[in-house]
């Protein structure tokens, strides 16, 4: 018979909609509104998993996200597989394939159960005491074995096809938790006209009120009251209702992260992360019932009493037909009454010797057997609980066995104070109710309802209402008290029976483990946690922390607060990686920066490389050239005729003002103030510790206006550094800095025919050598566009860098391209550019320099102006360490065997082959020289010119000859031609 | 009774809200940290110890800490802040060039 | 009691009631030969080697909280020695050698697992940097090898080497002998061994002042549990180093920044090695428990709050999803933060100080765990003999004044 444990006319599921799913290959039927847990329980299935260490058979313990046992793998097909899903949280949808975890070959017969038999040999921390011999066995035998038995589900192995979103929101009041207090808080705040966000982890709002069908609020039955309250909130425009949304972290400035579970079908966004900044935070996060700690308290069918009640009232599912409820306060009775009404045979075992008269009466009337003055001490049953052993607290041997198919534990309530604590609030122990409660808040936060220790319905309503800013007189009230009574300190079973009394169910941590840890000297809460792994499971200790603390306190002879305080970390419950990553995947992982010429470059066959966030052409592919062939061709073209290059990524800064010149004198090593208008100079910028930060060309446009370039990668940093000095060190200087990196496109034409090419499209400027010498700048019109033309060269050939406004870039490019055809103009990319400059011994910051290089190291000591009293880095350059002749210095290398060198290779002196004395910073093949060459930084390099060293390899060292880094046109005749 | 260890500070989700003196409170991701504040840059004729101290020595205070921030994705201005490095609460922000409030006790 | 399979078996038969404390809960004496401030991995290792190798047992380790509760208990457990400069390689190689037999030496399974540490190259600059490391490492005895993308994927199958990524993988540098160890066990193992040799480990004892005598030499400390005298004080306090050194009027070149990490829910073995990436800012391995251990970059501002900005965590998770798209459906189980003390050149300080009798071991920034045994040994040597071992001589405190930095910035661009 299908769904034998489904009760008619109970629960909020849609019985008209049947849904099929499989669990370990077997097909079951459930209904719309079920979770996997409720659907399986309806079908009488309690065995859902095997525990982490001992592989004990386990069933569902709780009702919500704190479920530690019933974790399954959920497969929705097409790469949509997640391990470790709580059956209590997965909505039932058609065709779900569910697999149990951590068992082999099957859930009912698991070879891992041998761990349970051997359990006495593998207590907490046993692995620290063994597996040390033989030494090699750890990595080759023991560890692989441990890793195979560890872990819960299996990792997904296909790329996840689903989409995740991210939103930012600001609100006046964020209410976390839609329990009665939370609904009240949200309503009160909304009525005051505030922007309100209300979120709840569950499928709907109402919290524990969803189980109180009989309660009355403001004259309405509870469920009706929830409906109308939610409907009212939903139609207010300034209210956002978020179901299935977990607030998983809170922090300073009332910044809260939420994870919303949106859609399971794969058609819409799957999950969405919300970042919320709230004026006020209200926590209505409820409380979680505690299990009881007694031998074999973990068998399938042994659950939390409130969970059983929720399965019945929300899903119409009876968890057993012969139920024993173990309790020590009044709340357990509500479960008893509800289950009895649904037709179960119910017994209540109450630890209190004397139970309140009205409860005794009600129990008798309902036909519930009541045994007072007894506690649970053991259980029997292999794949399902079959009997519970009870005894008086003081008479360990006076045991009675009660036959049953479910044991429901009402072990007291633990308020969920995690977010309050995360946002800096203090936490205080309240002995009368045996709980840590929110104390003084550090920020504008309030805790209301059960999470503040208030378990009386009417009081929760008032607390929530007032917490939301409402007046007491306006609050809806409940005549029903729904009093759960005083919750006592967790039941610690005084008898130590043989058999495992579980504290942390998922990690298989027992009471004995905790006592062992304390015996071995692990006495702080954190040590106990780490040694036993208690509280480190996927429920984050929500079902185990307080019980562990109570056991530890008892063993240490302290009170619970003296024993320690559990710390609360984000995430409150585990959060999907994809949700945290949001949109930041693939093309959106990092912004792509392209120049205004990007489309032209693509059309020309550019093969792009990532240079930081920029896409830059590495080379231009023609026919079936290899990259090496292409680069040689491009280099040859530049030196023989002319090449064109997109340098738009260069950083550019417009430095303007009466003090612009003295400002630049302070920032750079040289003396830009000595530049005449229209002149350019290569410039070095140092860090204060004397190392090269960046280089570029400084051009004086007019007396009080400079055009400064930086490396592409350094642009942002250089401007930031300039602003730093301008604003804080030199605030009286009248100078203003503007980034013009994206405003100017830069088209470079280098080569013997460069002048011819440029001339063809340039007006108003004479390009003749005597009118426009090297290292100067003219303003003119190129291809009809106003331009700054710089006669500078990174390749050592006659060169011009045409700066035009970005919006005109393609027009100018096209004109030059066309004009250049008859002069043999070709395109060249970054790789060729780097080869050409290396042939001239020009450094690239970040290659020849690595953050430990001074001007003198790269032969640019002359660029440090001696006449300046101060500039950035000057004081550091005076340090002794920088005049050491054994510092690495820039040289060129010519490999004697005529083969290419590898960048990063180390130089050695063959006489001392194990010590590195330098490294290859750039290595290329020179078209001009027809051979491989390299630039290198070598200790005392300049004093070794002409000598031979060797490059260390995995095989024999390769001899190289050191020479001056300027290999091509050392006199610079081509530049000045 | 042995004194208890100081309670572990809680681990939160943090995104500082930094009150830029020019733009008002903005999220941390708009700013770049600018190092300790009120470091006086010595003249180039100072001795090695003084220069090295300027470059590298830092209070690294656990508690009230005067530091610089730049509103990089905003007004671009440098300004100073006093922040408690134990709680990350920002006590006050003030313009660059103003004296350090650290001489006064926290309000 | 000796730890072994046999003693485990015997104790099992007796219900595990006879296991002794792993380290004595010592009451502080009025004086010691050496006080070590800081009961993390480094401090405890130093105590152990002082007692076992250099014959000084009259030692106290003073820890303000519970041992191993700072960065030792919060790191991502990566062990490697593939640093660029010879000085660094020597320092970390010294540790790597000790890691190999540490479980046996301490009679405590610290679970050292040399499963390989792979640094990915995503840009041409990364390739150059990685190859420079590989070449340099060959000369300094570090087993670092360059891998093409297919080889990298063969070593770590979950890696995505397609062109789909924003920064596709161009190769990787692999140190096969690098790996991980169980961080808590390292602290506890050293504590147990040191305690057995007579070292007093004093928890819940916060140093509040450093006492000096007339000549300026140290004379002892004031603590929350009373004064303790000593003529040698060795500070191994990681993120709190500036505080302690300030008590002796020594200003340090340190800034303490938050560093965050996270673990996923545990899954069956799916990740065979350690993978690190500077360009996409994350590093990942899988613990023996099955959790993916993921580390983020340090926050830009100094803080002792042990939190750190949410964007650092997000960025690390984004990077993981980008490099391993199949992990996108996994879940973050726990996140936490530590306090890392960073030096200007991202290399540590193991040194005498201007104050007589005061020694400091700090500035390990994001990479102290891997150096625990070696630093403990060499720091103990320094405290015992007063002179720095050649391996630590370049890491003196006064190198900053001289400008002799050992700038491993590339190695430290992402935490490890």
Kindly describe this structure.
- The complex is a heterotrimer of chains A (977), B (107) and C (416).
- By secondary structure, chain A is α+β, with helices and mostly antiparallel strands.
- Chain A is 22% helix and 28% strand.
- Chain A folds into 7 domains: 1-158, Roll (Ubiquitin-like (UB roll)); 163-287 and 415-469, FAD/NAD(P)-binding domain (3-Layer(bba) Sandwich), CATH 3.50.50; 291-411 and 489-499, FAD/NAD(P)-binding domain (3-Layer(bba) Sandwich), CATH 3.50.50; 501-564, Arc Repressor Mutant, subunit A, CATH 1.10.10; 603-649 and 743-836, Gyrase A, domain 2, CATH 3.30.1360; 651-739, Alpha-Beta Plaits; 884-976, Beta Barrel (Elongation Factor Tu (Ef-tu), domain 3), CATH 2.40.30.110.
- In chain A, α7 (305-315) packs across α8 (331-341), α12 crosses α13 (525-532) and α12 packs across α14 (545-556).
- Chain A is elongated.
- Chain B has a domain at 31-95: Folate-binding superfamily (Folate-binding fold, 2-Layer Sandwich).
- Chain B contains 1 helix and 6 strands; from the N terminus they run βββαβββ.
- Chain B has one helix at 48-56, and strands at 17-20, 24-27, 32-36, 64-70, 78-84, 90-95.
- In chain B, β4 and β5 (78-84) form a beta hairpin.
- The N and C termini of chain B lie far apart (34 Å).
- Mean pLDDT of chain B is 87; it is low at 1-11.
- Chain C has 2 domains: 24-81 and 83-108 and 182-253 and 345-410, FAD/NAD(P)-binding domain; 117-177 and 256-342, D-Amino Acid Oxidase, Chain A, domain 2, CATH 3.30.9.10.
- Chain C contains 12 helices and 19 strands.
- Chain C has helices spanning 5-13, 41-52, 86-100, 102-106, 124-139, 149-155, 183-196, 241-247, 310-323, 372-385, 399-402, 409-412, and strands at residues 34-37, 59-62, 78-79, 117-121, 144-147, 171-175, 179-180, 200-202, 207-212, 218-223, 226-229, 232-235, 255-264, 274-277, 282-286, 292-298, 331-342, 349-352, 358-362.
- The chains are: A alpha+beta (977), B mainly beta (107), C alpha/beta (416).
- At the A-C interface, β6, α3, α4, α12 and α13 of A face α1, α5, α7, α9 and β17 of C.
- β31 (575-576) of chain A pairs antiparallel with β17 (331-342) of chain C, so a sheet runs across the interface.
